[in-house]
Amino acid sequence: QVQLVESGGGLVQAGGSLRLSCAASGSTFSVYARGWFRQAPGKEREFVAAISWSGANPVYADSVKGRFTISRDNAKRTVYLQMNSLKPEDTATYYCAASTRAIVPRAQGAYDYWGQGTQVTVSS
What is the C-alpha separation between 114 and 24, in angstroms, rounded? Predict the structure, then answer.
């Protein structure tokens, strides 16, 4: 089993920045890809970004490309989401996820472990 704990959420004004962290513990040797998803009130959870074990070729949703950056520190078993130029429409609960598949998936069903989420609120 793998446990994921997110941190770094909060309230920020539009145009501001936040950095989310997701620390993993447990049987992390089985984890390949790490991802971030978000769910706004009244909406379905959607893909934000994902990264492979090596950190090469991260993938992003079009809505965050150029503003968000995903990275990972394998020694710390932590993945980060740097969010710049935040917009009110980025307001959501952000979840990190981990996949044991040897791919970098965008689909939620491809992820095996999930964190509890951290709230990000962007005011206009």
Answer: 10
- Cβ contacts of 40 within 8 Å, gap of 6 or more: 89, 91, 92, 93
Query: Following CA atoms 13, 15, 18, 19 in sequence, which dihedral angle do they give, to the nearest 10 degrees?
Result: 170
DSSP percent split of the chain into helix, strand, coil, nearest 5? 5, 50, 45
- Per-residue pLDDT tens digits for 73-93: 999 999 999 999 999 999 999
DSSP of 79-94, one letter per residue?
EEEEE-S--GGG-EEE
User: How many residues make up the chain in this entry?
Assistant: 124
Q: Render pLDDT for 30-40 as a digit per residue (tens, 0 to 9).
A: 888 999 999 99
pLDDT of residue 29: 82
